[in-house]
Structure formats: structure tokens, C-alpha cells
Amino acid sequence: MIVTLTKRFPHLAPLLEKYAAQQQRLEYPAKTILLHEGKVAQHYYFVEQGCLRVWFNNNGKDTTVQFFFENEGVASIESFRKNIPSIFTIETVEPTTVQVLPKKVFNELINNPEGHPYFLQALIDFSFERQQHYMNEFLSRIRDTPEQRYSNLLNDRPHIVQRVAQHYIASYLGITSVHLSRIKNKLAQKKKSGRI
């Protein structure tokens, strides 16, 4: 996280370098839970290599909300900032290396007068980007059919389809794996007949 912020906001370099040593670089195998739903978040995770999945328990059904890949960061932000239970779980999808920033260090960065308002501005920029992404996802769930959502995924974020298991993608699209197989077959037929 700190390295990426430094590249994007070079004027923050002196401030961020002070805290770089307090980040931990950790490696996890696939299917490792980094944060359990209902627990209070204590860390911000920045993906160096691999993939994280955010999901929640929907009446006993595992529902995927988002995927995070290289150079993306995630935390259960409300839990992290307000010390309340997380509404979702963060889990590795594949072997993953993350940079872990403890809450204490994050809070020091926010409250450090040397970094204000630049660090806060960087966080606001990242937050607006995430907010825009979530708004697009929300509108797509209302407006688009599952087939359209899968087509959008293929066009806009093909790495998800290439790297993530089909049952996770189906969960992310809000459908069953069987339904996703039908959509894939239908799209393959359209492509074969030249209608795509």
C-alpha cells in the first residue's frame, strides 16, 4: 500500500517512508480467511501477488461481493474505523502475498499533521474510486441480466474469469454454477454463429 501511494502521490514519500517498516509482508495459501464476518477488523490488506475475495453469509449461502488483485487494497472499512463487527469475510482465492498495515499505523498516518491534508486526500481519492465501482456494481445488479453481467465481466475484467473458480464467479453474479454454465454455453453458441 505504502509503495503504491508513494508512486501515485510522490509528495507523500517522506511521510510514508517513516511507516513503511511497520508494514508486514505475509504469504498465505489459497482459502485462508484473513478476516471473519462478525470480527472487528484490525488490518488493511494490500495485495502484492494473488487474489482476495470478499463475501458474506446470506442465510447459509456464501455470497461473493468483490475480488481484489495485485495493487489493490481492502479492509472492512466501517469495522476498521469504527471498531464494529465486520459485515463480510476476507479470504484468499489463490496463494496470496499481502502487505499488512495495522490499524494503529493507519490511524497514525491519518492523524499525523505532517501528512494532512495530503494523506487524507489520497485516501479520499481511493475511496471515491471504490465508491464509483460499487455504484456501478449496484446499478448493474438492478439493470442487467446475469448474461449481460457476465459479458461485462468478460469485457471489463477478464482476469477474474481467468483466475477465479466458476462457483465464486456464479456467486458474484448472483446465480448458480449451473446457470453460469448455461450462460457460457449460450455465449459460445452466439460466438460460433457470428452473432457476437
Automatic annotation (TrEMBL):
InterPro entries: cNMP-bd_dom, cNMP-bd_dom_sf, RmlC-like_jellyroll. Residues 28-110 form the Cyclic nucleotide-binding domain. Gene3D superfamilies: Jelly Rolls. Pfam families: cNMP_binding. This is Crp/Fnr family transcriptional regulator. It comes from Deminuibacter soli. The lineage of its organism: Bacteria, Pseudomonadati, Bacteroidota, Chitinophagia, Chitinophagales.
